């Protein structure tokens, strides 16, 4: 987290590959973010850690540094497996961003100003429209699509400050979104900032979600691989064995010297 808050998390953290992951139930997570947004000062960056993100974290020092200043929630069966092996227990809940963000918006009864950054222009527009249908008491502001100069974003930051947001959703994909947030977003831009990956694609309807039964058994990744094999084959076909190798290495040898401490 970039700024300390007066709130205490209602559940302990469990480490994963040397990074603390917050172990919360759905109710405690939703209650906590609702309180965060209501704070008069401070800012919290939040992200969701899954097996693919963990693989990236192990090889990208800039990404790892950004995550070290971010409140991380567990996403997917992969991190559950890793936690069971490394910590002796799985996480209390699967707090994936695709489900968590809409649930968060529903949970917050008071109206909030919510900014959106990322996606293609048509995806951003459609996502904002569907968010408005989902939670019409909130105000959704389309700040920018994802096609702007990340190294020269003064105009975006100025627009953010003028928008007076409570919440900012950034959908630019991992690791870009977390690094960009960490380097650029400050308390004057929003109280709560979330890196949400492909959320806008799902909310806009451009990318369909897996059937309910597949989501319940935590196999949505199989559906996504079937739908987009060329784009996702490396993430899953190669990435899953790599992730499991990291788990085994940490279990047997402990963290690499570069990550120790």
TrEMBL record:
Organism superkingdom: Bacteria
Keywords: Glycosyltransferase, Transferase
Listed GO MF terms: hexosyltransferase activity
InterPro entries for the chain: WecG_TagA_CpsF
Name of this protein: WecB/TagA/CpsF family glycosyltransferase
UniProt organism field: Rhizobium terricola
